[in-house]
Amino acid sequence: AAPSHPDDAIRGTDDDAAASRFSAVSLGYLSDPYASLLYKQQRLAGQSARKAPLINVGTHHRTAALDAVVDSFLSAAGDGAQIVSLGAGSDTRFWRLNDASQTRQTPLGRYVEVDFPQLTAIKAQRIARNRQLTGTLVSADPSSPKPYAVSHGGTALTAANYALLPLDLRGGAATLDADVLPLLDPSKPTLLIAECVFCYMSPDESAAVIQWFGQTFERTAAVIYEMYGLDDAFGRVMRRNLSQRNLSLPGAGFATAQAQADRFLDSALGAGVFNDSGAKSLWDIRTTVVPKRELERISKLEILDEIEELRLVLSHYCVAWASKGLDQVGLR
Ligand code: SAM
To answer: Which residue CA neighbors atom 12 of ligand 1 most closely?
Structure first.
């Protein structure tokens, strides 16, 4: 076998995220017709696609919270809102949002997804081969028979309302200027999504990305999903499990959820470019954001008897948001 690259473990984390989404969808926690189209199970005979109840519940709460922040951004932003999803992996949100936008008044601007070329090549192929996925794309070139164009050796796919780009985010502002900016309109409100991505980059590298958004767009917002508190007793167990998979977490040194929110405001952290931010742990999201009726519904799907363990796990993940020039973005 070819010697493995240190980034292979990072790229492999998308498989986990996609498998968790697939499990949560198959068991009825989430409704997402695209999860199975963008994720192909590679499991051995006899192995179950089912994740532990605790993981399914976490995936549900994480998705509900991200969806709520994205919705708050779209309401604040109005016409032509753009979204850039960094380390998007096999994420399905672009297609889910388009389904939802059938009932929304304001048209969306372009949705850009970025990941390593090894992942975008697979995603581009899955999109191009599936009519349900290409059906959402709007052609940038009416004379072309297809609504999208594939380029960069099959690792990039672009349409008028969507783009999938291969790049390493550690390239910072220079990479974003060269490859992402040409696909966006800097006068339009733009949301940065980084769902479980910044922990794999150094704090300086992610600060450079955050700063670029704050400096490039007059009206902008960000939402991130991250781990925190990995230095307490339970956090050290989490960290050990991850390092057994050769995963290093240079950006997972945040002690609290609030510290994840502060990184958007604090210029000492290199990103003093937003003027409003907040954060909630997944446990707080469970108790204050997820509607009671929805909690009741999912409580019937599987037996979850270890509430204390659930609280411990959910208290090590958070959703943090920030905005500039836009009102009421985030979880209230
Ligand atoms: N955001 C997706 C989700 O939540 O379903 C995938 C999350 S997965 C845990 C992390 C993703 O970030 C992987 O797809 C990985 O390849 C990507 N990633 C990590 N570091 C990156 C970098 N420096 N440049 C581009 N992508 C990166």
So the answer is: 87
Report residues whose beta carbon is within 6 angstroms of any ligand 1 atom.
10-11, 13-14, 17, 87-89, 91, 115-116, 119, 168-170, 195-197, 200-201
Q: Which of 275, 271, 293, 281 lies closest to 331, judged by CA?
A: 281
Tens of pLDDT, residue by residue, the chain (332 residues): 555 788 999 999 999 999 999 999 999 999 999 999 999 766 555 567 899 999 999 999 999 999 999 999 999 999 999 999 999 999 999 999 999 877 666 779 999 999 999 999 999 999 999 999 999 999 999 899 999 999 999 999 999 999 999 999 999 999 999 999 999 999 999 999 999 999 999 999 999 999 999 999 999 999 999 999 999 999 999 999 998 988 989 999 999 999 999 999 976 555 668 989 999 999 999 999 999 999 999 999 999 989 999 999 999 999 999 999 999 999 98
How close is the Cα of 295 to the center of ligand 1, in Å? 29
Q: Residue 282's closest CA among 331, 220, 242, 212?
A: 331
169 is in an annotated binding site: yes
Which of 197, 238, 248, 318 should be mutated for ligand 1, with most atoms under 8 A from CB?
197
Complex ipTM: 0.99
Looking at the domain covering 8-324, what would its CATH class be? alpha beta
pTM of the model: 0.96
DSSP for 188-211 reads S-EEEEEES-GGGS-HHHHHHHHH
Residue spans of the domains in the chain: they are 8-324
Strands (E), the chain: 81-86, 108-115, 149-151, 156-158, 162-166, 190-195, 220-227, 276-281, 317-324
Give the tokens for residue 111. Answer: 């949705």
